[in-house]
Specification:
This protein is an alpha/beta fold. 42% of the residues lie in helices and 26% in strands. The strands form three sheets. Strands 3, 4, 5, 6, 7, 10, 11 and 12 form an eight-stranded mixed sheet that branches.
Length: 290
Amino acid sequence: MELIQLRYFIDTAKTQHITQSAERLHISQPALTKSIHNLEVELGVPLFTHKGRGVVLTEYGRYLYEKLCPIVAAIDNLSEELASMTETENMTLRLSVNAASSIVTEAIIEYRKTHPGINFHVIQNRKNELYDIEITTGTAYVHNDFDDEFVCSEKIFLAVPSDGKYSSVDKIALEDVKNEGFVSLFGSKQLRSICDGFCKRSGFEANIIFESDSPDAVKNMIGSSIGIGFWPEFTWGKLTGDHVKLLKITSPECKRNIIISYKNLKSDSTYVKGFYNFLVDFFKKRRADV
């Protein structure tokens, strides 16, 4: 059965008149008659019977008509439904966030104030290729094959108690704190891996006395002088409290890159590009405020 045959059958069932349906369908009467006849031969049952100058459905024809109407109607609606799905998909932004999650969250909240129709699907700290924008970090930058990419560098300081032996210093070599207890993120986090590398370059493995998968928990513990810890310059915000201060690390050089990447995967990437530009400006402003 071909879809065009089924449409011819449905129209004829509605008009109950071959000539009228042929005119409505813009085909000749013999062509319509042949199409219906071929459908009857294929199905092995009569679909119409003549009544006066018109035709009426047989029992088989009525059954076929009742079954076909919702199917053909669904097919007719597919174009509109797919267009709606495409619009929804274009307005759903998929973010892979592996770094600077606090700033990204702030940016999303701020952006939705003026773009309430945009939906965000955020995946954090796990491998995923189905994203429109990726935020990641590393000590070395390697250009990737993205449609657009923004890279900004930030220093990483050491947060220490402001009293006692650190009261009179504003910079320090990392090897000088090798015996301290460190507050840190879990090892699966990209920042943790970077900071572990700094310690390794200084000849020691950090003594982790507290670790969490939440940057906020780590920041709070450092802010409470539970232990010392690494503190990214602008992505973690300002360190609050008079009893903890940030020291510049003189050796080794401690910094990282934040990379925001954009991929043009949608049929219309206008919404993705709009948020990407907003996010880049958001990071630039936050870095300038340091």
